[in-house]
Design a protein that fits this description.
This protein has 142 residues and is mainly α. It contains five helices and no strands.
Length: 142
């Protein structure tokens, strides 16, 4: 049963990742030109970070015991799924034959970095949910 909860958490996290990234991109397309500083321009950076971190946090919160692992898988699979579904991968793979290695490297590194961001968020959610008090030296109190 415990692993099925982690699987549900990972699935929910991946769905949230794709949904939040689509929402952030849709809102960014409605923004004014980059030279004009408005409320939406100021809001774009926190919105993009929430779209990156919140799915890993949700996955870590739901899985209870495997927050870091589930967050990493959510970031890895979610960013890959979003890149494929949004067509971001297609533009990098439609290059000359000598650029295929660069395109594959871009895709793998992007997914891995998003996985690390989401792993940190998932670990944070697991820590917050555990409700363990901390000592001044940073270790968990017994």
């Amino acid at each position: 049963m415990k692993h099925s909860r982690t699987l549900v958490a990972i699935t929910a996290g991946i769905l949230f990742y794709v949904l939040f990234d689509y929402s952030a991109v849709a809102l960014l397309h409605g923004f004014p030109p980059p030279g004009l500083v408005t409320f939406w321009t100021v809001l774009s950076t926190p919105l993009g970070m929430l779209a990156t971190l919140l799915p890993g946090f949700i996955s870590g919160w739901l899985s209870r015991n495997h927050g870091i692992i589930s967050g990493f898988i959510v970031g890895l699979a979610g960013s890959g799924a979003y890149a494929v579904m949004a067509g971001g991968v297609a533009q990098y793979f439609q290059v000359a034959d000598n650029q295929v290695a660069v395109s594959v490297t871009w895709f793998v590194v992007t997914c891995a970095v998003q996985g690390l961001y989401s792993a940190a968020a998932g670990g944070s959610a697991q820590l917050v949910r555990s409700n363990n008090p901390f000592k001044a030296d940073g270790s968990a109190a017994a």
